[in-house]
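Narrative progress, year one. The postdoctoral researcher (J.K.) led the effort to move from monomer predictions toward full complexes, under supervision of the PI. The following entry was the first complex the group processed end to end, covering 953 residues in total.
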Amino acid sequence: MAGPKTNRIGLPVTDYRGVSSTLCKGCGHDVISNTLTTALYEMGVEPWRVAKMSGIGCSSKTPAYFLGPAWGFNSVHGRMPSVATGALLANRTLIGLGVSGDGDTASIGIGQFVHMVRRNVPFLYVVENNGVYGLTKGQFSATADEGSRLKDGTVNDFAPIDICTLALELGATFVARAFSADRKQLIEILKAAIAHEGFAVIDVMSPCVTFNNHVGSTRSYDYGRNHEGPIHEFGFVPAWDHPEVGGGGEDTFDVPMPDGGTIRVQRVGRAHDPRDKGAALRLLHEDAESPEYLTGVFYVRAGKPPLPQFLKMVEEPLATLPEARVRPTRETLAEINESYR
Amino acid sequence: MNESTRAAEVPGPVSVNDLTLRVATVNGSGSQTANNTLLRALFHMGLPVSGKNLFPSNIAGLPTWFTIRVSGDGYVAPKRDVNVLVCLNPASAEDDVRSVPPGSLVVYEETLRCERYRDDVVLVAVPFQKLVKEVCEPVALRKLVVNMIYVGVLTELIGIEVAEVKQALDKAFAHKPKALGLNRDAVRAGIEWVRENVSRVSPFRVERMARDEDLILVDGNTAAAVGCVFAGVTVLAWYPITPSSSVAETVAHLGERYRRDPETGETTLAVVQAEDELAAVGMVIGAAWAGARSMTATSGPGISLMSEFVGLGYFAEIPTVIVNVQRTGPSTGFPTRTQQGDLLSAANLSHGDGRHPCLYPSDPHEAYEFAMAAFDLAEGLQTPVFVLSDLDLGMNLWMTKPFEYPEEPICRGKVLDAEGLAKMEDWGRYKDVDGDGVPYRTLPGGADGVGAYFTRGSGHDAYARYTEKGDDYIATMQRLALKLETAKSRVPEPVLDGPGTAVGLLAFGTSHHAVVEARDHLRDELGIETDYLRLRAFPFTDSVREWIEAHERVYVFEQNHDGQMRRMLTMEFPSLGARLHSVLHYDGLPPDARSVWEPIALDAVPSVKGGA
C-alpha cells in the first residue's frame, strides 16, 4: 500500500503546515502562508532547522500557520531583525525565515530592517505588504501610495517607502517583489530565495480584504490584477535536477544560485537579468513613477559573505560548544591578573 | 628669587601617607597616562590608593581633574579636602587654588601666577612650558610630554620612589620605546628641577608600606568584561555609551585574543556593534533563545530603550545578561558622572508586571565575580539579569583582589537535548516540573525535530500555545513570580558587619567605600556604633529582612535623589518601611565618608552639628 506522498527528504506536506489561520477570509497573507508551505515542501527544507521569526501585526501572526514542526519566535513590533540576527549568529545551522508587514518593516521597524540588510544576515525576509495596519483597524502605513484612499475617504498625503528600492540601495543581495494573487510566480521567487545565501527580501503585495481592498486603494486585489507587470518570466530549477547552464535552450538564460539551483529566465518581454543592479534600480524608479506594479526578482548577487561567515564564527551551534572552547584557561586568567599588577 | 621660596613662609608638621592629590588639566591633553603612572607608582610602594577621574562630556578643551587619595588607614573613598594640587589649566586655576585648605601644597605652571590667589598655602611655581621645550624636541608631542614633568615634580616633592615611577613608565610604554625615552626624560627633568630649585620639604609625603595581601589595580569595566569572557559568553551585542563602552570593547578585545582559533581564524564569540540599544538587546535575546550565552552592556539611556525587550525576556523566559554601568540621569543627565540611579528602573524594567534579578558589585573583584555569576543565574532562572555597576566602579582604577579562576563548571540550567527530552513525560516549554517555577527549555535546531516550540511575547500556556484565557495567564504570572522567590536562594547574600547595635547602616555597590570610613568616624570621633549590611542583590534574601527587623533605625545610604533602594526595600518589606531612613548623595561625584556620617550624626546627636 502506498504511503502518503512525500518530498525529497521523505516528509509529507502536512509537516509543512501549521495551525489554522485566524486572519480574515480572503486575506492575502494566508495565500502567502500556503505558498510558503508548498515552496518549503518542494524544496525539501528540513523543518526542524528553520527559525520562523516575526514581529507584531497580522503578518507576524502567520509563522504559526505554516511549518508547524519548526521553531518559532513572534517577538516585538518592528524588532524581528535584531532577534533574528542574534539567533542566526548563535546557530549557523539554522535556516532563518521571517514574515513581517509594512508597518512592522517600514514604519516602526525601518531602523532594524536597514541594518539587517547592511549586515547581510542570512535570512529570508518576507514582507506582507498591504499598505494599512490591520489589527488596529485600518490606518495607513508608510508604504501606502501617495493619493491612495482609506475606506472612509481619507487620502494619504505622503510618499511611500519602497522596500525593494531601499533594500537594493543598501546592498541587499536578493531583492524581489510579488503579488500574493500571483501564486505561480510567488512560488518560484520563494524557491529562489530559499536557494540564496545571505539576506533575501521579498516584498509581496498582500491585499487586506477588510481595510484596503476598495476602489481608490492601490493595494487591492483588483488594483494588483490590473497593474501587475512581471519584469521577467522565470522558473526555478532546483539543484537536484542538476540544471546545466544554458540547459533551457536559446530562449532562456540562467542565473545560477549558490545551492546549485538556477533561476531560468525566458527571453520574452522585459526579460530582466537579476544580476544587473543598474537595470533593477531603473525598473524600480520607473515603477515609482507609473501606476504599474512591477514584480519579479530584481536583483541577485552571490558571493558576499553573510554575517556569521564575515565574523568568522565557528560552524557549530554556540549552544553546544564544550566548556574548554568558551572558557579560557587558568593560565590565561593568571596572565590577565599579571597585567594588572 | 624663585616663587618656591614662599614655601618657607608656611611652616608645619609633615603628614605621611595621608593625602589627596589633585591634578587639574585640560580634557584631551593626554594627562591620563601621567596620572596612572603616579597611581601605579604609589600602589607599588604598598600604599592604599584610589584614583578618581573627573572628566567632562567633551573630546577636548574642557577642564578635567584627576584625584588620587593615599590613605595609610586603607580608605579608598574620596576625601573632600585636597592637600596637593597641580594646576596646569588656566581656565580652572583660580577656582582650583582657592578650593584647597590652608597649608596645602600647590604646584602650578609659573605663568598662571597662582601666587596671586593665596598666601596661606605652599606654592611651587614650575616653568613647565620651558622645561618641556628642553626635553621634547617635537613640538607636537609637548602637550603630552609636559604631563610627565609634573609626575617628576611630584615624585621628588612628596617622596614617590623613582624606581617605581620608572617601572610604571616601562609598563605604560612597553611597546613604544621612543615614547618611553621622551617620557623618562620628562620625569627626570621634573625631579631635577625640584632638586635644584625647591629647598623645603613638602608638608605632605609618602613612604613605602608593607602590604600583606596580593592586589591588582584595575577598573570595574575591565573586571566585568573578564568575568563575562570567563563565564563563556558567546554573543555580545552593544551600542556605544559612556560609561559602559569599555565593558563591551574589553570583551571584544579579550575575545579576539583568547576565543579566536589562531589556526582556523574562527571564533566562539560573536560581537556586534548594534545600531542602537533596542537592537543590541534584541540580538542578545534572539541569541539566547537560540542557545548562546549572551550579554549586552549599557547605561541609563540604553536601559530605557531596552525596556520593551526586557519584558519579552521576562515573559518568554529568555536568559541574558545586561551590564548597566550607571551614570547620572535622568535623560542625558551628567553622562560622565556617577550615580546609583537605575535601581528601580532595572529591577522593574518594562510595562506590565515583572521584576528582574539585579547584582550590585562594589569593587572590581566583585564586578568580575558578579558578571560571571550573572550568566549562571540568568540561565538557571531563564530570565534577564542585571549587573548594576556605576561610572565610579567602571571607569576608575581600584585596588582589588586578583581574579580567581572559577572552580565550578559553567551551568546552563534546565536545557534539554534530544535524550533529555525523551525522558521527560509530557514536556511543555513553560511547565513547572520541579516546583521552583523554572521550566525546561529546548534549543532551536538542537533536537532534530523534537522539542520545537513557538516562542511569543503574547499570552501562552504551559505548552507554549497561544492563549487569551485568564486562567492560563494567571498561572504564568504566578509561576514567573515563583521564579523570583527561587532567585532568593541563588543571588549573593549580603555582607554583615557590626557589634550588634540598634543603629543599622545599609548600602551597596560603590557606596560601600564611603560607609567603611564613615563607620570608623562615627565610632571613633562621635561614639556612635553602627551595624552594617552591604546589600549585594535583588531580590532581597531573607537575611536582609531579618537584619532590618533586628535594628530600630536603619540608614539606607545610596547615590540618588529619590531614595530608590529605600523604596525597593519598603515595597518588599512594607511593615519595615518606617525603620528605613534615607541618607543620600547625588552630585554626580563618588561619595566621601562625610556624606554618610554627617547626616547620621545630625540625626542621632543633633548637638554634633557645631563641632563636626
